[in-house]
Design brief:
5-stranded antiparallel beta sheet, binds zinc ion, alpha+beta
Length: 223
Amino acid sequence: MTEGRHVTVTEDSVTADSVRELLAEARDGVVTIVAAGDPVLRSRAARYTGQLDSETFAELIEVMRATMHHAPGVGVAAPQIGIPLQIAVIEDLYDVGADVARVRERTPLPFRVLVNPRYTPVGPETAAFYEGCLSVPGYQAVVTRATEVRLECSDERGREIDEVVRGWPARIVAHETDHLDGTLYIDTANTRSLTTNEQYGELWSDPTPERAATALGFSVDPG
Ligand code: ZN
């Protein structure tokens, strides 16, 4: 999933000053989301090793959370607001309807902070669904991902997390963690499944991408 040519951001190149400068641009607590084409989205972010004082760290988390809500989205990685640190926020409490929730295993995901996350697939089971990205606005495409992943990271208080995440939350964890590695979902998406948000809403919003696969001519890997 990752290529070896990503630029790695060094830990000491991200300073509290540079982060505070960016946070100062927030309007109503919200900053602009960086779009694909910006090198920050293609770099391997620096591990967070306490580069920020606790006040700046807390403000960063609040701005990321507000920006995610404003978008709206279910996750924001720090590089998406121009900060190359391995930090992401995730939260998915949207009502998507019973059928979609059941088929996609889209269970409620309360707000949480992932610091220096990594994930590894658990078992052979995969799931193929449409997903999108706030940094690639206007489009969605089908990505096949592990149904279950082991998530290892720290939380906002520095506590070590090691747990298995399943279903749609696993997809969100993988998508956001990939951002911190300079990977966008389009790198592994089935390109023939690409659809605008408008076409998705009109045609392809059913729980699975089976009909889209037949109509658009792509194959969905069996789970
Ligand atoms: Zn994204």
